[in-house]
């Protein structure tokens, strides 16, 4: 961002600081403070004396300067937990009010902006975490993701949208960033263009996106973003926040009407001009030799180079891990970390020897497909939460380990603490949404609503179907029973589901 924008941002931080002090003194109601703080990527937690700060990382890029910042502040101020998010950002939790502006100001020095990290703003722009290095990708989408982020930040003060806007760029290999059902999703194609979907989203009344353009030229990406902002501002719902996300425009305009309105705004934006992009992906000149065989070491398309996947349980980095990773990367020329949408941290551009060192430094991470499960921060911290998804996931991991189930018997699951779908439970093979379970003649019990059959494979995207409500205390037992059935059949989860499509419902029935 240019110096003029940053100067205003620093003045805004001062204003935010005054609002935070007023809230801390009890002079500003929580709802009013939330309306202010969200625009700066911060929210008060369930304990109103503690706060969260969300660090925007366009494309999930945790560059070495950003990692150094994270290592320094987490050590200096004892920050814990540090949460990787499904929007490829990082959340710092349990912060005191006086620490917020200190961190926000310090972060500017390594090009981390928290502005727009929450509230009715353009959120962190996502990209396939292995874009630029992944075998089989159409092309590297990172330059366009970063350009989109810069543009959205540059206009965020000048627009007033009904709700947030989430934008994702997929490199054409898989749709882990959920481009097919974001507010805007750009999917790279082998011919060098993007397939563009708009007005999708998870949560209440979730919807797949509407195909708005089959072959959008990369130079027109910012025009498309401007057109979506204009369409949202013109046709979004400012009266009812519950129906204010872009996906509700599919109801009010119809998919065809929405597409028509967007394309009209796209042509108008192109006529105004000034937003053409001429970008080239960065070239990776590093080379390597040697071969490494490990499930967490992913061969890159660059010969001899690897990316190492590190998934901290629940997406929460252990205390001291940022400093350990920063020290590691200091000794690895050309290496870079990226945050993935499944809360996995990837370390890119490693030789076989370097990748072995990275694997050694990340042995505390998930070792099985199930342990790579996703969970939001949960109700013990989040003021919106209904269930403690982090605690639930930890209990499930412990139970599955104790049952000694083979890797692959259970899929990665996604646990959201409330209907907001922050863990994308509606797109998971097994998804769980925090709620309460009615008990006939008795008191409702803490529970999770079970969703089955979601998929985010590119071209096969679908939402899971609700199956019933599982009492929180029975969730580990249910998962062990399902995993044991697949293991006893000698099959991995997907093969078991295909071979015995009715078995899941039969096994789950006593728990529902």
TrEMBL record:
Residues 43-105 form the Nitrite/Sulfite reductase ferredoxin-like domain. The keyword Lyase does not apply. Residues 119-262, 374-482 form the Nitrite/sulphite reductase 4Fe-4S domain. The keyword Metal-binding applies. Pfam families: NIR_SIR, NIR_SIR_ferr. GO terms for molecular function: 4 iron, 4 sulfur cluster binding; heme binding; metal ion binding; oxidoreductase activity. Gene3D superfamilies: Sulfite Reductase Hemoprotein, domain 1, Sulfite Reductase Hemoprotein,Domain 2. Keywords: 4Fe-4S, Heme, Iron, Iron-sulfur, Metal-binding, Oxidoreductase. This is Nitrite/sulfite reductase.
């Amino acid at each position: 961002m240019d110096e003029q924008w940053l100067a205003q941002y620093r003045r805004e931080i001062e204003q935010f600081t005054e609002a935070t002090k007023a809230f801390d003194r009890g002079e500003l109601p929580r709802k009013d403070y939330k309306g202010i703080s969200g625009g700066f990527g911060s929210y008060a937690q369930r304990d109103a004396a503690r706060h969260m700060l969300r660090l925007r990382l366009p494309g999930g890029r945790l560059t070495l300067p950003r990692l150094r910042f994270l290592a320094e502040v987490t050590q200096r101020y004892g920050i814990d937990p540090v949460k990787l998010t499904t929007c490829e950002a990082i959340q710092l939790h349990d912060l005191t009010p006086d620490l917020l502006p200190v961190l926000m100001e310090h972060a500017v020095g390594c090009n981390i902006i928290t502005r727009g990290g929450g509230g009715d703003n353009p959120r962190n722009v996502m990209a396939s975490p292995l874009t630029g290095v992944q075998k089989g990708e159409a092309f590297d989408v990172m330059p366009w993701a970063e350009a989109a982020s810069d543009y959205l930040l540059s206009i965020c003060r000048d627009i007033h949208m009904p709700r947030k806007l989430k934008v994702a760029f997929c490199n054409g290999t898989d749709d882990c960033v959920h481009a097919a059902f974001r507010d805007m999703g750009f999917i790279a194609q082998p011919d060098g263009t993007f397939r563009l979907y708009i007005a999708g989203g998870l949560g209440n009344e979730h919807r797949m996106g509407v195909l708005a353009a089959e072959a959008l030229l990369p130079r027109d990406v910012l025009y498309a973003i401007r057109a979506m902002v204009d369409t949202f501002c013109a046709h979004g719902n400012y009266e009812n926040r519950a129906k204010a996300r872009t996906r509700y425009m599919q109801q009010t305009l119809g998919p065809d009407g929405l597409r028509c309105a967007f394309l009209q705004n796209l042509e108008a934006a192109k006529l105004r001009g000034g937003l053409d992009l001429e970008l080239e992906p960065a070239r990776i000149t590093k080379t390597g030799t040697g071969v490494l065989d490990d499930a967490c070491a992913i061969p890159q398309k660059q010969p001899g180079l690897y990316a190492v996947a590190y998934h901290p349980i629940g997406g929460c980095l252990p205390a001291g891990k940022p400093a350990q990773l920063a020290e590691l990367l200091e000794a690895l020329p050309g290496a870079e970390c990226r945050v993935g949408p499944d809360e996995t941290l990837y370390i890119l551009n490693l030789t076989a020897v370097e990748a072995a060192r990275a694997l050694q430094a990340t042995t505390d991470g998930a070792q099985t497909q199930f342990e790579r499960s996703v969970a939001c921060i949960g109700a013990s911290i989040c003021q919106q939460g209904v269930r403690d998804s982090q605690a639930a996931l930890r209990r499930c991991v412990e139970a599955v380990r104790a049952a000694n189930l083979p890797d692959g018997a259970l899929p990665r699951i996604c646990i959201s603490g409330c209907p907001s779908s922050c863990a994308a439970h509606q797109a998971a093979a097994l998804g769980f949404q925090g709620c309460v379970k009615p008990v006939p003649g008795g008191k409702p019990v803490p529970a999770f609503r079970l969703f089955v059959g979601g998929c985010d494979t590119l071209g096969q995207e679908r939402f899971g179907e609700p199956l019933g409500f599982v009492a929180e205390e029975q969730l580990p037992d249910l998962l062990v029973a399902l995993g044991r059935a697949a293991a006893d059949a000698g099959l991995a989860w997907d093969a078991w589901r295909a071979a015995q499509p009715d078995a899941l419902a039969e096994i789950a029935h006593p728990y529902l």
